[in-house]
Structure to design on (614 residues):
């Protein structure tokens, strides 16, 4: 038998058996998959599977990738291969309702013209005119189109959600119906302060482009049946009847996106101006939040010394640090929820805090959070505040993390079990609600995220933060089916060196602290020089006194010392990283082979001992 195994005939038999095994598994188990990745990167979610299996009409997908033009782009080609593999998995699960075409658009070809006709984004590669296409177009039986202009590598975590959203949009071609109740002038209107008409907010214009928007009154008795998502922005004037209408809408399966605020700085209503700068500008949902298991104080604002913005004080003055206006970075956003996963920067102003109540039946999923260097203060502190840096006076963090936004899911009961006078409730509970709560309204105003320029009579928005993206993502997510809402954000295919990155961040913090100390000493020295020059004869300003020369020399010496400290910090950073690299090399080069050799030796000794025992 051993002779047969080691002979040429034996090797040929093994080769034929291997080929036969592959052919058999390909025929008998064509859809078998084994995903061994930690975050199940190659396994589509149950929500996507439900969308594909419930397709009624055929959908055709056209995947455009410039294969020949990208032959030297290894990283991009690997990503394109993963996109194609996922699309083929979609095609397999859809069971004939999804047709996939892979197209390599060559320069000056009909395929390239078709990609441009779909509106896909081409990236120029060379000065000769070569372009790279890497996008997706989809069409349905009604000739409607949906596209992903370009698959950005940094957005790979949202790949499944974007593909599922495109297919879901083609399967449900009508624009989603959004009902809006707003206590702020999102649509423009007359400004009571200036008496001039105001332009619509950019966020409002974006909603109008993507959704069928229906504005509702604040005293509604019921939410119209055709409304799929109800959007509440600063709902401070809702009557009890309107709150009951919202309650019943949510319990019957309607989706709710609500922006509430302890201090809506954009509120310029007569009521707010009569009540004062801070009083009268808060909004709440009253008993609804308690029924949904959420705690919220409409009179408290979150301060965060870690996320505070730098704001202008005017010409000729240094910027001020405003710890009530915050820049929320990706590490303080949920990377598992498709609403916040693609965002990079959000700016919020005088936001409130949301927290789950003990014993709540709903699931509280935070979307935006503060750092631990934060605290709550009364909103009245902002009344007639001139300098935002006064908020730093006596500030002391309480080491608590506060949540600015959250998704609520799960079973819930009505907030009006006894109904209202003359009205009974139809629904008293629901197995699953879907509500997005955001405790800030100012993030929707133009000044917090976008600059609007006039370009030949047209308003051209230039966003510098992702606030508009948060609104559109939330509406897009909620207006989809329950299956689309459940599609998760996928993990990251790249595995960064987190230890090295942590070393870099720590060194950068030390470097910034030293740099700030140098800048502060520079300002103090300049102030000292100005004080020394006071009272000096203007005709002698070019002559320096001994005291001035001593002050300048002392600063220069200190400046050189601090520069040396900065170089030492950089040296320590590189030394730590190099030390870590040497340790990893030692493990890979020496330790792992030594362990393998030891394992083989132990296996040989055990086998030898067994043979002797026999």
């Amino acid at each position: 038998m051993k002779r047969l195994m080691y002979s040429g005939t034996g090797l040929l038999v093994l080769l034929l058996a291997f080929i036969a095994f592959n052919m058999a598994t390909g025929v008998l188990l064509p859809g078998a998959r084994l995903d061994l990745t930690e975050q199940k990167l190659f396994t589509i979610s149950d929500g996507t599977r439900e969308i594909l299996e419930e397709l009624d009409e055929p959908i055709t997908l056209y995947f455009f990738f410039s294969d020949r033009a990208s032959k030297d782009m290894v990283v991009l080609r690997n990503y394109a291969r993963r996109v194609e593999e996922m699309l083929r998995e979609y095609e397999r699960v859809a069971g004939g309702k999804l047709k996939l075409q892979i197209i390599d658009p060559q320069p000056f070809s009909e395929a390239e013209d078709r990609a441009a006709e779909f509106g896909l984004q081409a990236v120029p590669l060379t000065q000769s005119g070569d372009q790279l296409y890497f996008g997706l177009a989809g069409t349905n039986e009604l000739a409607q189109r949906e596209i992903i202009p370009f698959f950005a590598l940094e957005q790979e975590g949202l790949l499944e959600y974007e593909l599922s959203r495109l297919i879901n949009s083609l399967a449900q071609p009508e624009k989603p119906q959004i009902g809006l109740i707003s206590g702020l002038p999102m649509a423009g209107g007359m400004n009571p302060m200036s008496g001039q008409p105001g332009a619509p907010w950019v966020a409002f214009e974006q909603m109008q482009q993507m959704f069928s928007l229906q504005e509702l009154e604040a005293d509604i008795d019921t939410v119209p049946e055709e409304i799929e998502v109800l959007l509440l922005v600063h709902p401070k004037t809702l009557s009890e009847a309107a709150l009951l209408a919202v309650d019943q809408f949510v319990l019957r399966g309607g989706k709710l996106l609500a922006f509430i605020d302890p201090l809506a700085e954009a509120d310029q209503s007569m009521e707010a101006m009569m009540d004062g700068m801070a009083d009268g500008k808060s909004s709440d949902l009253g008993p609804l939040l308690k029924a949904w298991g959420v705690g919220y104080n409409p009179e408290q604002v979150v301060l965060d010394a870690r996320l505070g913005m730098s704001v202008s004080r005017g010409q000729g003055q240094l910027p001020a640090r405003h710890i009530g206006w915050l820049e929320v970075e990706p590490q303080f956003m949920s990377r598992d929820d498709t609403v916040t996963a693609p965002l990079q920067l959000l700016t919020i102003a005088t936001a409130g805090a949301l927290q789950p109540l003990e014993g709540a039946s709903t699931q509280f999923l935070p979307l935006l959070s503060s750092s631990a260097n934060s605290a709550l203060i009364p909103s009245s502190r902002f009344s007639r505040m001139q300098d935002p840096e006064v908020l730093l006076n006596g500030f002391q963090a309480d080491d608590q993390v506060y949540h600015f936004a959250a998704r609520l899911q799960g079973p819930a009961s009505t907030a009006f079990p006894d109904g209202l006078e003359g009205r009974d409730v139809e629904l008293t509970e629901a197995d699953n609600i879907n509500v997005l709560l955001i405790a800030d309204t100012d993030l929707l105003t133009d000044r917090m995220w976008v600059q609007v320029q006039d370009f030949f009579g047209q308003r051209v928005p230039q966003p510098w933060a992702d606030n508009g993206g948060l609104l559109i993502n939330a509406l897009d997510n909620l207006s989809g089916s329950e299956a689309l809402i459940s599609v998760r954000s996928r993990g990251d295919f790249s595995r960064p060196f987190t230890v090295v990155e942590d070393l870099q961040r720590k060194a950068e913090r030390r470097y910034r602290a030293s740099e700030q100390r140098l800048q502060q000493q520079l300002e103090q020295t300049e102030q000292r020089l100005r004080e020394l020059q006071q009272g000096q004869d203007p005709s002698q300003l070019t002559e320096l006194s001994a005291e001035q020369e001593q002050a300048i020399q002392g600063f220069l010496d200190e400046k050189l010392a601090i520069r040396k400290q900065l170089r030492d910090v950089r040296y320590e950073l590189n030394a730590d990283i190099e030390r870590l690299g040497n340790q990893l090399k030692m493990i890979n080069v020496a330790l792992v082979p030594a362990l393998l050799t030891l394992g083989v030796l132990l296996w040989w000794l055990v086998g030898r001992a067994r043979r002797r025992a026999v």
Notes: The CA atoms of residues 79 and 86 lie 11 Å apart. The chain has a mean pLDDT of 82. The first strand starts at residue 59 and ends at 65. Residues 499-529+551-613 form one domain.
